[in-house]
Amino acid sequence: MNRAAWLALAMASCAVATDDVPATDDTDRGDDTPTVDPVRTPLDPTAQARRVSMMLRGRPPTADEVAEVVDHPASLQGLAETWVQDEAFVETVVDLWATSLRMRSPDLVYPPLGPLLTRSTQTIHRALAEEPLRIVAEVVRSDQPFSTIVTADWTVLDATGADIWKAHTYDPEGDAIQVVSWTDERPAAGILSTNGLWARHASMGANHHRGRANVVADALLCEDFLARDVPISGDVDLSDDEAVGEAVTTDPDCVSCHQALDPLAAHLWDWHPEYTPGAVGVAFLTGCTTPFFELCYPFDPYRPEYALGRTLLFLRPPGYYGHTTKDVGDVGQAIADDPRFASCTVRRLWSHLTQTPLADVPFEPTARLQQAFVDGGMSLRDLAVDIATHPDVLAATADDAEVALRLPGPMIVRPDAHARTVEALTGFRWRADVDELVCKLSGIGCYGPVDLALDDTHGFRTMTGGVDGVRVTRPTLDPTPVKLLFAAALAEEAAGWVVRTELVQAAPRRVFDGVDDLATDEADVRAALARVHVNVLQRAPTDDELDALWALWSAIDTDGAPRAAWRATLTALLQAPDLVVY
Amino acid sequence: MAAPTRRELLLGAAAAAGLGLPRGAAAALPPGHRLIVVTATGGWDVSYVLDPKPSSEHVDGPELDEDVDDADDREALQSWGDLTLTTNASRRPAVTRFFDSWADQSTVVRGLWVGSIAHDACRIRMLTGTVTERSPDVAAVFGDAAAQSRDVPLPTLDLGGVGYAGPFAASNGRLGRNRQLRFLLDRSLPLEAPANAGYARSPQYAPAGDDLTAIQRWVADRDRAMQAAWADRPGAEGRMDALVAARARAARLRTEGTDLAAAMASPTAATLRGQLDLAVDVLDAGLSAAVLVDSGGFWDTHTDNTQQHALWNDLFRGLDALLTRLQDDGTLATTTVLVTSEMTRTPKRNGEGGKDHWPVTSAMVLGGIGAGGRVLGATNDRLDAVAIDLATGAADPKGTVLRYDHFAAGVLEALGVDATAWFGALPRLAL
């Protein structure tokens, strides 16, 4: 189906469905009275502000921002437009693409040899895993058309990446992380022409880059070939290239996928199939001499002559879903022009922000958003604002059964957002040093400082619902016992740190701003508790909530030191469900 | 008129479709039963043990690896009742030892079609019986069902990091790659901070006793208040219920999991033997009803298939120790051990002496529910699945090819879990 036909279908579907969506009355814009929605009951303004801020920035709104929305509900739109300019929004989008591209596998590490001898495991991992994600970040940060992620003629490298890869313009005297160009004449295809993406998705043996092609189709077009059952009989010897080659071109069961998958895969022969750590180690041990010189840093992975292997095996020629494409640059442009890319981008962002499984993303609102996304020049910022402020997203309930079914349910804070939230409220980030003595003495063999919320090897990201892209490929969004054990530990650490720094060391106050922490008289303590409640949860407590806080504060064995009670109370507040559910 | 809640809408839709809620009822669950799932991640070569093909010209079996100068290095077919398997006294002695002791506790399932030749896709299918990781694996379903009838704070524990919690996340937990769960269970364990962190080490604060109880009670009360306030919101019921349940479980783990945290501290806890010991500790302590374990080792032998000898040997050595401990503890009859791999290797070796991916594998069911000493399912001399009668497991041209969903549904039913919610009226393999 061509693009025009697809859009016509989408718009026709929209037309059928528009009855249940109230038309926007422009005269209401800027008015403090929200548009009356005959179908949906909106969340209260505080909940709306909290939800939109958490969706876009992964941290709660400030008390002032909440007050602004409460006083002027229409101001939420403007705030959302401001929030997407925040670096935290970039991190939100990068988290989505780290999941879609499965980039953050802890196994993605090259040996610390040669110029990498003193680089930590995490440094090397980040240099590889973050390269394509930094392109996504740069596109979002500078609000370029989102299709730039597959058409850009630049990449983003750090110093370690610059040492791993050949043929780029990284300046050792410049910033640590730089936008650079490749000098090996590789086609401009954004993330598709990065080395990092293909380092993560290596191609083994007789796979012939089909796994890589599926990553492209799945992440960018929402077409996951692996979701289909593969009917294979013993008539096909999968260890025999020739037999497989015959089957994928003649066996109808195989052809249905491979006629689309294999031409896409054909383009990816241009990248080295796999740098295995063992082979790299042997190469260095042997002095990087022939035949191992290619396996020593800096690697030179883009070599169009690798495609000769495909020709010799008589595999399908390159192409893009029936269209002739000469290189991966053409593929990137074809993807950018493919309505499925816009559709997939909209659905993925809706899915990520509203925590709706991709397969359950409702057609009606996303079809309309897709049109606006394309017409508006593919600004991911605008799209995110449109999603976060969509009437479905801001609704508490709906009378219409069909609309009610598609309303997003309560959302659960993700690991990265949880860490960002606690840091925004307290200034605390939980980190650990897991390195052994040999690292400390020699600087070799180090893992590096660990951010416990964001690390999968020594930290708790996948244990608390996150994705490592290799063993855990989908987020767990329901609260789990381990997630809440972590929440408790993080709250305790943050509370201990805040009480020490703000109350003992007299650092500038944020949690205890405006609080008399030495008060012991009930009325004074209640006033202080109410203030801390606002500082942590951005709203005043109800009378019942204040009673409960007072009961907690009073129950703590302080031995005459109210700071112990404040530490325990803050530990509780930082675990409040208000910071977990939105 | 009050707006329908999402639950009501979903119930209505489910009722209209003739489906139940997605939860495995525990109607026939054996009292106190436990489940250990062991996965050989990467894809084992079943011709080395479970599905012998010594005379097939279409299958390159382990006999290709024999050392002509070593008289002991010979592949053999060895039988224990109805179980006939491939053994090698020199390279895989643990296999023989295992079946000498435990053949009567072992059911081998052959000819299991997994529907894909990609690792992730196959792992999802084998563990969940479906094509999506949104579905729970059999351990998660069993753990949740068990928790309906007995008091377990963490119904399913994933030691190997290979499982899928699906909608049962609130009853599921992961150990972590470096067993870091211990730092959450026992908050007195020290963690050094990096030089520029602004503090020397954790814990900076670790409440205990009455203080901890007071904090936990306050948080639980706030959870319940929010649960009540959000009751009418679409989709709120499931997530808010999960929050309340998971918080209660977390609180119990904090008070009851300290001893296990000490067990997790041992570096051997990451090995197969260590994981299996830890699994039994967790089950014996009543903390969990189901545990997932990863066998470790690099089973994905695209080059040099001879590595499969040591992998199988290590696997059976671990399983032997596990069943011995269960036997000694008197819990073998109430503990089912499911041993799987997401796929097997191709019948023939490739140009690099390795084997690629093949979508017809085998599995084992040990102890517990398994009648033992038998083989279900079959393959032909090309290692292709042949049709079987799912009720008997015997080859039957009029039957059906055994698929991953038949198998998963059969495992759950044999464990006493009503799998209708997940698999409807799909025929099950009778275990």
Describe what you observe in this structure.
Chain A is mainly alpha-helical and 582 residues long. Chain A is 48% helix and 3% strand. Chain A is built from 24 helices and six strands. In chain A, helix 22 packs across helix 23 (543-555). Mean pLDDT of chain A is 91; it is low at 1-31. Chain B is of the alpha/beta class. Chain B is built from twelve helices and 14 strands. In chain B, helix 2 (93-102) packs parallel to helix 10 (307-329). Helices cover 34% and strands 14% of the residues of chain B.
Q: How many DSSP helices of chain B?
A: 12
What class would the helix/strand composition of chain A place it in? mainly alpha
**Mean pLDDT across every amino acid position of chain A:** 91
Q: In angstroms, what is the radius of gyration of chain B?
A: 23 Å
Beta-strand fraction estimate of chain A: under 5%
Main β sheet profile of chain B: 8 strands, mixed
Tally of DSSP helical segments of chain A: 24
Largest sheet of chain A: 2 strands, antiparallel
The ordered string of helix (H) and strand (E) elements of chain A is HEHHHHHEHEHHHHHHHHHHEHHEHEHHHH
Q: What would you report as the Rg of chain A, rounded to the nearest angstrom?
A: 27 Å
Which percent bin holds the helix content of chain A?
Answer: 40-55%
Question: Would you count the extended β strands of chain A for me?
Answer: 6
CA(first)-CA(last) distance of chain A: 40 Å
Across the major sheet of chain B, the strand order is: 6-5-9-1-10-13-4-14
